[in-house]
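Reopening this ticket.

The earlier resolution said the output was attached, but the attachment link was broken on my side. Pasting everything inline this time so it's all in one place.
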Amino acid sequence: MGSSNLELIFDSVGHFGRYQIFLYFICAFQNISCGIHYLASVFLSVSPQHTCRPPGNVSQVLFQDLSTWQLEDIWTQFSVGREDHILVKLQDGEIWELTSCQRFRRDDQSSLDYEYSGQKSSFPCLDGYIYDRSKWLSTVVTQWDLVCNREWFGRLIQPTFMFGVLLGAVIFGYLSDRCSGNSCLCLCVLGDGPCGEKKHSDFLPSVKRSDQWCDYGDPQGLPFLVSGGNYGWKIFHRGSIWPYIPLYSGAVSNHCKVAGRGEWQHGGPCGKHRGPVVHLSLQHLDLHATDTPIQKQKQWFKETFDHLFAIVNSAEAEDAGVILVSGWQIFRSIPTEEVPYWADVVLGFRKMTKDELKKFPQHVFGHAFTTLKCEGPAYLPWLQKRVKGSGGLILTRRIEDLWELHPSFDIVVNCSGLGSRQLAGDSKIFPVRGQVLKVQAPWVKHFIRDSSGLTYIYPGVSNVTLGGTRQKGDWNLSPDAEISKDILSRCCALEPSLRGAYDLREKVGLRPSRPGVRLEKELLAQGSRRLPVVHHYGHGSGGIAMHWGTALEATRLVNECVQVLRTPASQSKL
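Inline output:
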């Protein structure tokens, strides 16, 4: 079209006036606001609550009258405008006081008391900081540690960003007048794509869950306590005894970026409960309890499977986070036991066909079946809601020794996991560190598990779990970027489409493991005093797979204690 014809059209419809300017602004405004929104989240200079990172692995944390294993548990206890310190005990025995901008090592390490008037040495925060991520998962302040003596630099971030926006508007406005409009448009589109996608993947916010607590019950209101970690729960309940559900008492870390830091936790019934490193489905029996007979493991597994299968066939399935899932367990060599002992518990168990094995060219044998996946973040609050709905009462308190519960409680149910090293003096309990990735890959519908148990792909309701590790005796709760990359590489070898997964989040947890599950009664004696204890811990990675079955057995043991306490001369019988 010639320029003369174009001028004729402008003469007919009108030249570039206010209306045309308004239309142009409407078309361009969404791109301008979207770009500012994307970049603003990167340069957000919010300074969250923070404290110095301790110079080693933490075994215990104390803040006023709150004791826990993880620094991230204490943020809600801080008062605005008040300088508090956090007391931590490291695995090497050193005791440190942490403040927001400084840390102190106590010279006297004989006791872990919050108040201390002895000598202590001051050190700067050379190991960085731990931030409250309940609202902002990641900002430029947390990424670059722009706090304390570097806080002034953080205050320059947003003014610098806005100045850059204005400068960019001038520069690109000038270029748009001098260059071809099409060329500038193509340049902007090509630049916005990778830059916007990179920002989006790196700074997507995460959702936090608050701590929850649990209850337990005795049919006649007989008080007894469920012990978790360094905490206790006093329960009064009228009705049938609720099975106690033991899971993991490790801790979990979570972050959006493979190489980043961050923490996450959720509440669970019957104990202050940090989320399992994997919200394990029941497609395999991964108990690793050499001292537990196979028939007993199968019984617990079947009772748990039947319980969850009833849930998945009810209207409660969505709220409880229980789903059916199908998939494969694959082997690089033909196993000695081609049909595992749990084959008649899961649904539709069969050997994989040759055509199915073509998907996994490095493997020669496999099992195909349908099973159940139980997701902890939904399942645990659902259980807690049911118990509370039946009249359960929760009372929290810190304990260092089970004898602190006598005579207030007639029976103690010890489900403290790794805390049993202290509360029960159990030297057989040890951590097994696990690290996984949670990713968004909605096209993955089937689980895949390598026979080693270290590489697995578990699709869930809202994400896909990629695993994993099994590091015996490792207490480290910080994500390892190299391990995350290795996990992703191994899982992509089984399912190449996972290279397109997005929103990668790391999680680290400690599985409370021992040679066999400790599920037994014990009568503690101290002079003339007696305290019945039911121990129920040490499930390792099989907590969800076994939970209902072992809970039923623990309930039977509690009932036996209850019956003895109701009979005359119960002390002598105990």
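Reporter confirms the inline version is readable. The first strand starts at residue 50 and ends at 52. The first helix runs from residue 3 to 13.
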